[in-house]
Amino acid sequence: MLISMTDVIFLLIIFLLISSNFASQTGLPVKLPGSVSAVRQTHQVIHIVYLSETQVSLSDKPIPLSALDAELRKLISSKDQVVRLSADKDTSIQVLISLMDTIRGAGFEKIFVATQNNKAR
Asked: CB under 8 Å to 99, separation ≥6 — which residues?
C-alpha cells in the first residue's frame, strides 16, 4: 500500500514539473532582414524608418531621433495599433532594440521589423 502511494506522489511531482512554467528569458520578437518566412502585415498603422544615428522617418516625415518618443505619444490611440520598423540590413541589433524600447515606452505593444521576402523561386 505504501509503495503505490509513493508511486502516485512521484507521478504527481513529475506531472507538476512538466506542466509548470519555468522562468523564461525576456526579449523582443525580431525578424531580421532577408527572412525566408516573411509574412505580409496588413494592419500597418505607423511606419518608422531608421535613417541615421540622429534621424528617423515617422510616416514619411523625417524627425530627429530624440523627438521620436514625443511624436509617438501623440499618435497612440490604442494598444492594438501596429508599428512597422524598417532599417537597413547593416543596422546593428542594438539600434533596433533601442528603437523598439522607445516604441514600447511610448505605449505601443505590437511592433514588427520589416523584412524582405527571400523565398527561392
From this structure: 48, 50, 56, 68, 85, 87
- Residue 68, all three cell numbers: 521620436
What is the pLDDT tens value at each position of the chain, 121 positions in all? Answer: 667 888 888 888 888 877 776 555 444 454 445 655 555 555 546 888 887 778 888 887 888 888 888 888 888 877 778 888 888 777 888 888 888 888 888 888 888 877 665 554 4
Locate the domains of the chain by residue range.
Answer: 30-113
Helices (H) and strands (E) in the chain, counts: 3, 5
Candidate CATH numbers 3.30.420.270, 3.30.1370.60, 3.90.180.10, 3.30.43.10; the one for domain 30-113: 3.30.420.270
